[in-house]
Write a structure and sequence with these properties.
6% strand, mainly alpha, single chain, 5-stranded parallel beta sheet
């Protein structure tokens, strides 16, 4: 089931951002998790800075264009092999040995190995050292992942902790590593003009800094005593790691939704790997050097970080299965633009776009995996996906330079521009086309809203039009009757319900407060003459009644394709508690959006009446309540609030003079409802 987040424009986005930041602050207030996150950030910075330094050193130690590409591929292949050979066993180590000791030992080993790379300074040792470093990294990662739940105070903090780790690993630290590498390139070039011994040492300096990050990570983890000790082993003989991986792979292959997710995630990371693998040669085709390479490398992760952090909010009401496939398609299209870009600045912008859409795809895919996979298979599925992501990413990085190396360079003159066409551009274009194909395939396999036209669904999501999106998938119609006391809402609602039933429609009549069993109890508290409620207590009780009303009555009827007519809805709270009680309207609106999941009527009939006339009508009834007993000034403010709401959204409101004869009012209402029915029927009934 896909949960649609409430929308609300500027007034809702501010609190949403604040809430997310507060959740992040909450997990970072936990000392031991904060220390582990610092260790992760240091290790991740070392991983990415090390990748940049190793690929730059491999290229520098080669003596020709083809040799440089083959050397680059050799370094990346040595990083691929440990993940292929050791990943199934790394989880066993994490479950059977002290995780703190495992992490500290791996970080100290990586520190020592990286120090030796610039000291030895040969291509052979670079290959060997890369292999050794990645072996320790393979064992470090599952130990870290398995330690996180033990450090948190509540299970609901795990999602926030994982999101923070993901953004740190693929967003913050790659950007920092790219910026640091570019700064070192420029700094050593400037210092080399004064001290010849410094010239050309940026790669060696980067290696030493990289080693230092792992030393910091080791010392930090060493102080986290809560992740020490040998993990508990379940009773009985546990299945071997190879069997667990095989079962996860079989589940992925046999489930269409999960298969589409995995294919899409791997395709998105393959597209990112093409950019990284071709980045250095591509930078040369643009006339740039190490600094340009660093900027392009950083740009992909700037995009990834932005996509993971902000992307889903751009179209947060779009079904996640649709957002996933579309974001991969857009990532592939952006990558094609990268391939044909003639200028560095254009390339950086299009690379950021590629990363942005890939980040949305990855975060959305991982979220769907967590919600769609049963608990008993979820761990193995995540382990399989994460292992495959690493393999695909590094495999792409390893294969791409070899393919670039066998392609000759050509110069093309276009007007005043001279463009260099080489293997890097060909591979970028091919990667973009591959992502387009993968995205379309994933979308077609996973789309669960085939009855709703995609373009209309996308436009409604971007506009935050939840009413339009609901009507794209169901023929249910929601009409609310609003107005002051004695306006005749109940009378008009009953007349309309009878007219609709005579024409064969399924109609549900309801009212607020009191439309449910719980609502009846709340109504007695809200309207009883002896109730002494503060304005905010009153607003919260109305919201509680409405939340139960929507969940138990309105939403099920709409999902079944019925027509729901309600006497009062959200606008009554905005008018009575906002306008009448002088509670800030933004606070009432936010509360109501949360209570209703932003369910809005298709049509709101506002029966406008002079409060003096309406109160005279209402007080003739035997069931007068404390709201009706409020002063006249209160009811004047309520009337003005209703009018302001209608003026602000005229397309949704039908404002009628409640002083007119009831038959005339009903005729106007039937005309508006007829138009609404015709509009809904024109979209066609939903299909299975």
């Amino acid at each position: 089931m896909t949960t649609v987040a409430p929308s609300g424009g500027a007034t809702a986005s501010g609190p949403a951002v604040a809430s997310q930041l507060e959740r992040i602050r909450g997990v970072l207030r936990i000392r031991d998790f904060r220390l582990l996150w610092i260790s992760l950030a240091a290790s991740s910075l070392g991983d990415w800075l090390g990748l940049l330094a190793k690929t730059a050193m491999a290229t520098a130690l080669a003596h020709s264009y083809q040799a440089a590409n083959f050397a680059l591929g050799g370094v990346l292949v040595t990083q691929l092999l440990p993940a292929v050979l050791l990943a199934p066993f790394a989880g066993v180590i994490a479950d059977r040995f002290d995780r703190r000791h495992t992490m500290v030992g791996c970080d100290l080993a990586r520190f020592a190995v990286f120090v030796t790379i610039p000291l030895v300074g040969t291509l052979t040792w670079l290959f060997v050292a890369s292999f050794i470093v990645e072996c320790f990294a393979v064992f470090w990662r599952p130990a870290k992942e398995a330690s996180v739940p033990r450090l948190l105070q509540r299970t609901d903090q795990l999602e926030t902790a994982n999101q923070l780790s993901l953004i740190t690993t693929y967003g913050i630290t790659p950007i920092g590593a790219a910026a640091l590498f570019s700064i070192l390139a420029g700094l050593t070039r400037w210092l080399g003009g004064h001290w010849h011994s410094v010239a050309g040492q940026q790669i060696n300096i980067a290696m030493y800094l990289n080693a230092a990050t792992f030393l910091v990570a080791a010392l930090t983890v060493f102080t986290i005593m809560t992740i020490g000790g040998r993990p508990a082993t379940p009773a009985g003989r546990a299945p071997g790691p190879v069997l667990l991986i095989r079962e996860g792979a079989q589940f992925v292959g046999g489930t269409p939704l999960i298969r589409g997710l995995v294919v899409g995630i791997l395709g998105a990371f393959a597209a990112g790997g093409v950019i990284i693998g071709t980045g250095r040669i591509y930078a040369q085709s643009l006339g740039g050097g190490d600094a340009a390479y660093g900027m392009l490398f950083g740009a992909i992760f700037v995009g990834l970080g932005l996509g993971m952090t902000f992307g889903p909010r751009v179209a947060r009401d779009l079904a996640r299965v649709r957002l996933f496939g579309v974001s991969i398609v857009l990532s592939g299209g952006s990558l094609v633009l990268v391939a044909i870009s003639p200028l560095l600045i254009i390339s950086i912008i299009t690379v950021v776009l590629t990363g942005f859409f890939a980040g949305i795809a990855y975060l959305t895919g991982m979220t769907l995996l967590g919600s769609e996979v049963d608990d008993e298979i979820r761990g193995r599925t995540f382990a399989f996906v994460q292992s495959m992501v690493q393999v695909v990413l590094i495999a792409t990085l390893a294969v791409v330079p070899f393919l670039v190396g066998v392609t000759q360079r050509h110069r093309v003159h276009l007007g005043g521009f001279t463009a260099t066409i080489d293997g890097s551009r060909v591979l970028l274009a091919a990667g973009g086309v591959l992502a387009l194909v993968v995205g379309i395939a994933a979308y077609r396999q996973m789309d669960d809203r085939r009855s709703a036209p995609f373009l209309a669904d996308l436009i409604a999501a971007v506009r935050r039009d939840t009413t339009a999106r609901r009507r794209l998938t169901t023929q249910g119609i929601f009409i609310a009757f609003e107005g002051g006391e004695g306006a005749g809402k109940s009378t008009q609602l009953r007349l309309l319900a009878g007219w609709l039933r005579d024409r064969g429609h399924t109609v549900v009549e309801t009212h607020e407060p009191g439309g449910t069993e719980l609502g009846q109890r709340l109504r007695s508290m809200l309207l009883h003459e002896d109730s002494d409620l503060s304005p905010r207590t009153e607003a919260l009780l109305f919201a509680a009644d409405r939340a139960d009303h929507v969940s138990a009555v309105i939403r099920p009827a709409l999902d079944a394709g019925g027509i729901v007519l309600t006497d009062r809805y959200v606008d009554s709270s905005l008018a009575y508690q906002g306008g009448g009680r002088d509670i800030p309207l933004a606070e009432i609106r936010q509360l109501q959006r949360w209570a209703t999941s932003d369910l809005q009527p298709d049509l709101t009939v506002l029966l406008d009446i002079d409060p003096a006339v309406g109160l005279q009508r209402a007080r003739q009834r035997a069931d007068a309540d404390r709201i009706e007993a409020s002063p006249g000034a209160f009811h004047q403010r309520v009337r003005q609030a209703f009018r302001s709401l209608a003026e602000g959204n005229p397309s949704r409101y039908l404002v009628l003079d409640a002083g007119r004869p009831a038959e005339d009012i009903q005729e106007s209402i039937r005309g508006a409802v007829t138009t609404l029915l015709l509009t809904t029927d024109a979209s066609g009934p939903p299909t299975g």
